[in-house]
Write a structure and sequence with these properties.
D-Maltodextrin-Binding Protein, domain 2; 13 strands; six-stranded mixed sheet; single chain; 18 helices; Lysozyme; 458 residues; flat
């Protein structure tokens, strides 16, 4: 068997330790604890996990991940603080757990005989099997025997490494087993295949399929293993903690939360929104055809609709703002619901654009007293960004102070900016109070500038 250490792999640097508050930890507590009573008395549940697309990651300074959100809920159920430590590898996590440095591993471990002998599995998740991850094309492999002579990258001492060794024996061939650096995750290796940095790796089908959703060139159809159960890990002697987790996992509210998080992280995973949006050559966006289709409903130039979407989401279908606005058109939850979207459809590009256009149509009606179409568009853009209430307040102020309530620049725009000053937001004609209008004024101008740029381009 041939083993190689790759020297061109890009190393991913991660923090070794992190807490829920994102503060670096100098060291982990080394005091072993017997069971749930000790954890409750210390008011802390010590948990290990790893960075990954479904386990734990930071997105726009927000901590996210299926395992993170589930274990945070568990800590709330137990009425203890959560102390999270981020490991560099699966081996490091199991060492921490075995040594009593953590109480629980909130990470999806595959059930093996070795792990079952050392630990207990809790919070079981959907079973999956190993597949070969490669790129699509005429040279894509269709049978495991074709791996002979091929370079397959896996991490040492991983379940993929073990399976690859067994497979090599089974086919009696000469697979080039290349050990990837321990700092790389399974997500990293899949990405490296997608980017043509390596040819092959192994992954579980559910994770490979998740990556395929965002990397269409990936091929993960060829099974190299069988269904295996999985879940979180606790030490076998912590029976009371295990029972508490099992009781919590069966609660109707926990089942519902888990179902919602499966949808969030396996259907519309924010992790993949970190990647750049690929715009086809000669196009304004990946969704030009949809902007052209739906702009007709409001009699807008489709490039204006594209400009609005760009400044809302940068054409990121998975964008979620701090306030909860979602999708290409960044619709707030109540607005999305009013126009027919739900948690399963709000990230669908076409449905999100259609709902956004229907909202624009309603704003067009709200400001139909503004006869000049170009002026009305400015009011619609402002209302789309701030909500119509603050724009209506600014119109009322303009009317009171002798300005034209149907003209944007230096009239309504001026008073929208003034709504951050007590003299104006406390004025009797103002119904909706304080508002910082600077961002909205900039949004209107930036959107119109982008529209002008798009109009010159196409």
């Amino acid at each position: 068997m041939k083993f190689k250490l790759p020297i061109t792999i890009l190393f991913t640097s991660f923090l070794l330790f992190a807490s829920c508050g994102h503060k670096r930890k100098e060291s982990l507590s080394v005091a072993p604890r017997n069971d749930l009573k000790d954890m409750i008395e210390s008011d802390t549940l010590r948990v290990a996990t790893m960075y990954g697309s479904t386990s734990y990651f930071l997105f726009r300074d927000e901590t996210m991940g299926f395992d993170y959100e589930m274990v945070k809920n568990l800590a709330g159920y137990l009425h203890v603080n959560l102390k999270l430590s981020i490991a560099r590898s699966e081996n490091e996590m199991t060492e921490w757990l075995r040594g009593g440095k953590v109480d629980l591993i909130a990470y999806n471990f595959i059930e093996t005989k070795e792990l079952k002998n050392k630990f207990s599995f809790v919070l079981p998740q959907t079973a999956s099997y190993q597949v070969l991850v490669q790129n699509m094309g005429a040279n894509a492999l269709s049978d495991v025997t074709q791996l002979e002579g091929k370079d397959v990258y896996v991490k040492a001492n991983s379940i993929f490494y073990d399976r690859l060794l067994s497979l090599n024996e089974e086919i009696g061939g000469s697979i080039n087993v290349i050990l990837a650096p321990d700092s790389l995750t399974n997500d990293d290796l899949i990405d490296m295949v997608a980017d043509n940095k390596i040819a092959y790796t192994f992954a579980y089908r559910n994770l490979a399929q998740l990556h395929k959703t965002y990397n269409r060139n990936l091929d993960c159809h060829m099974a190299v293993g069988f269904d295996q159960r999985n879940g979180w890990l606790v030490r076998s002697e912590t029976k009371n903690l295990q029972k508490a987790i099992e009781k919590w996992a069966k609660l109707p509210q926990t089942v519902q939360i888990q179902s919602n998080l499966v949808t969030k992280y396996w259907d519309q995973n924010p992790f993949f929104a970190l990647r750049n949006i690929k715009i086809p050559k000669g196009s304004i966006s990946p969704y030009d055809h949809l902007f052209k289709k739906y702009a007709e409903i409001v009699n807008w130039d489709w490039r204006l609709l594209a400009a609005l979407a760009f400044h809302e989401s940068r054409f990121n279908t998975l964008e979620v703002s701090w306030a909860g606005a979602s999708g290409l058109m960044q619709l707030m939850p109540h607005t999305a619901s009013n126009f027919g979207l739900n948690r399963n459809t709000k990230f669908d590009p076409e449905m999100n654009i259609e709902a956004g256009v229907q909202y624009i149509k309603s704003l067009n009606m709200a400001f139909n007293q503004i006869e000049n179409k170009k002026e009305r568009i400015k009011f619609i853009l402002a209302a789309y960004n701030s909500g119509p209430a603050h724009v209506l307040d600014a119109m009322a102020l303009a009317r009171k102070y002798g300005k034209n309530p149907h003209v944007w620049a230096n009239h309504v725009e001026y008073f929208l900016l003034k709504k951050s000053e007590p003299e104006f937001y406390n004025d009797p004609v103002v119904k909706y109070g304080y508002y910082r209008g600077k961002e909205t004024v900039k949004y209107v101008q930036n959107t119109l500038n982008t529209f002008d740029k798009y109009a010159k381009k196409k």
